[in-house]
Automatic annotation (TrEMBL):
One of its GO terms (molecular function) is FAD binding. Belongs to the oxygen-dependent FAD-linked oxidoreductase family. Keywords: FAD, Flavoprotein, Oxidoreductase, Signal. Transmembrane segments: none annotated. Residues 68-247 form the FAD-binding PCMH-type domain. Pfam families: BBE, FAD_binding_4. This is FAD-binding PCMH-type domain-containing protein. PANTHER family: BINDING OXIDOREDUCTASE, PUTATIVE (AFU_ORTHOLOGUE AFUA_1G17690)-RELATED, FAD-BINDING PCMH-TYPE DOMAIN-CONTAINING PROTEIN-RELATED. The lineage of its organism: Eukaryota, Fungi, Dikarya, Ascomycota, Pezizomycotina. Coiled coil: none annotated. Residues 1-16 form the signal peptide.
């Protein structure tokens, strides 16, 4: 997901909806636009067809080409929870393929930042574009922020900066609440407070029945826990009530180095050391980024510190590394830092693919072996037009286990890697995906041999083929299935809404 390049109330159901009577059977037809027309008639000004700028805006705002290439028959842009509830009731009542458990009916999107085709868009169905549901509220005691399900964190942070507060959100622009928070949520303060999802007090959710419910530690507790990692499998989340945390400012940015064997070695040592439990500074976040763009390798680090401290000692091993070619380390507010990251990243990318994996922090020699294997693996794909590859090494959030992810709690020394590629042409899809798979297979073999591979795949960075929810462990998967049976007895969100689904038995 993160892609760096070169330096580079329970809503009362509106009566119209209860009136959302199912079409009489004789009115049913298989013409794809009919359900859109029906929805359009019920939600004037909120359903957009290919001939509108609202439709085009929605399509163009996806991060990757594979998502932009899918053409929904219409885009529904709800403004409030009652719209979402009414929509779900209407489409479920008029589902023309109720027995067809493999045909997606509607997709749900917030930021639309997930790479793979069909994560949050759908060909020939309806796309529910949640971006208009971006309300923001702060409780009187300032301990809870309520953010709409389609809120982009770039719009949330500035509302909290004047209070010296933040919420745990995305580190890159374009990433919005719905996907980020239901997949986990790697954030600037993840070594102190864990995943963003660990910090959610309650959810307002529209279930498959269209009913609006709240899930918290004291109400629908099973659903509350399931939503912490369970992606879009249980309903459409219209509001998140999340913990605020104090934040006076950030220091950090990007530093680039000459790509040499020596630089790789000293990075391997610096990262392995920084990850060691005795060296933990919970306010610090580091990522090493090895890249290959236009035939050249590069290496850069992102260093982030969640306090207004210039060059904090915890980064000493990184800031003293030789061969610095460029750096942009500065004091900034969290809002400014995320905007800065956006300024060095493309707003959209072409064809793309990524794989994620995780392991216990190894010694420097093992990191170096991973780096060298990565570099060698690039040879298989280097001729691909427009190829850009990034190998990103960063810490896993230190969770206390208040989620469904199944990660060992309180472990500061789990590393997460995401290998991402972008390229120009469909003809190269197999070459690139096979090339990346081969690198990851070799990496996992190295880690398995040392019994360091933990198997968990972080959903927000996973390709759909990695089936991330299946890596949460058998007990969590069984619990998630039970929650689905209880809150969505027909399995509507399993079958009719695309995304990262619960593993099939
Ligand atoms: C756009 O398409 C829809 C559905 O076909 C139609 O109802 C609407 O009138 C069209 N609007 C314009 C401006 O052509
Ligand atoms: C069910 O949906 C799949 C995927 O869209 C399609 O291939 C298949 O023909 C559909 N089956 C029926 C009976 O409509
Ligand atoms: C935020 O922190 C700054 C620096 O400590 C302080 O001057 C300011 O009064 C604080 N603002 C609020 C609203 O607490
Ligand atoms: C886990 O962390 C969250 C977020 O910091 C906190 O609200 C919760 O009370 C913690 N739970 C336990 C069991 O420590
Ligand atoms: C790659 O090189 C081409 C041709 O020199 C140039 O147009 C393009 O901007 C470069 N791309 C990147 C990401 O540097």
């Amino acid at each position: 997901m993160a892609f760096y390049f070169s330096l580079l109330g329970i809503a009362r159901l509106i009566s119209a909806v209860t009136a959302a009577a199912a079409l009489a059977p004789e009115q049913r037809s298989n013409k794809p636009l009919d359900l859109c027309r029906l929805v359009g008639a019920h939600f004037p000004g909120k359903v957009w067809f290919t001939n509108s700028s609202e439709y085009v805006d929605s399509q163009e705002s996806y991060y990757t080409l594979q998502e932009r290439e899918l053409n929904p028959s219409c885009v529904f842009r709800p403004a409030r929870t009652a719209d979402v509830s009414a929509f779900v009731k209407l489409v479920a009542a008029n589902d023309r393929y109720p027995k067809n458990l493999s045909k997606p009916l509607f997709a749900v999107r917030s930021g639309g930042h997930t790479l793979w085709s069909g994560a949050a868009n759908v060909d020939g169905g309806i796309t529910v574009d949640m971006r208009g549901m971006n309300s923001f509220g702060l409780s009187a005691d300032k301990k809870t922020a309520s953010i709409g399900g389609g809120s982009n964190f770039i719009d949330v942070y500035p509302q909290l900066v004047p209070h010296n507060l933040t919420v745990l959100g995305a580190r890159m622009p374009g990433v919005a609440a719905g996907g980020f928070l239901t997949g986990g949520g790697k954030n600037f303060l993840a070594r102190k407070y864990g995943f963003a999802c660990d910090n959610i007090f309650s959810y307002e959710v529209v279930l498959a029945s269209g009913e609006v419910v709240y899930a918290s530690a004291s109400q629908n507790q099973d659903l509350w826990l399931a939503l912490k990692g369970g992606s879009n499998n249980f309903g459409i989340i219209t509001r998140f009530d999340v913990a605020t945390h104090p934040l006076l400012g950030m220091w950090g940015g990007i530093v680039g180095f000459e790509y040499t064997p020596d630089t790789l070695s000293v990075h391997a040592q610096a990262f392995s050391d920084w990850m060691r439990p005795e060296n933990v500074d919970e306010l610090s976040d580091v990522a090493i980024i090895l890249g290959f763009v236009n035939g050249s390798f590069f290496i850069e680090d992102s260093l982030f510190y969640s306090a207004p401290v210039v060059s904090p000692p915890v980064f000493a091993e990184f800031t003293k590394l030789p061969g610095v070619t460029a750096q942009s380390l500065e004091l900034r507010s969290v809002a400014e830092l995320v905007i800065f990251m956006g300024s060095i990243l493309p707003a959209t990318i072409p064809r793309s693919f990524e794989l994620v994996y995780a392991f216990y922090n190894p010694d420097a020699a093992t990191y170096l072996a991973l780096f060298q294997t990565w570099q060698a693996g690039i040879q298989q794909v280097q001729g691909v037009q427009g190829l850009q590859i990034q190998y990103l090494v960063q810490p896993m959030p230190v969770t206390n286990g208040t989620n469904s992810l199944g990660l060992p709690p309180h472990q500061p020394d789990i590393t997460m890697v995401v290998l991402t590629a972008a390229w120009d042409n469909t003809v190269d899809d197999d070459t690139v995906t096979n090339g990346l798979q081969a690198i990851v297979t070799r990496h996992e073999a190295i880690l398995d041999a040392k019994k360091l591979n933990i198997g968990y795949k972080y959903l927000n960075y996973a390709d759909v083929t990695q089936n991330p929810i299946s890596t949460y462990g058998a007990a969590n998967v069984a619990r998630l299935r039970a929650v689905s049976r209880k809150y969505d007895p027909t399995g509507f969100f399993q079958a009719r809404v695309p995304g990262y689904k619960l593993p099939k038995k």
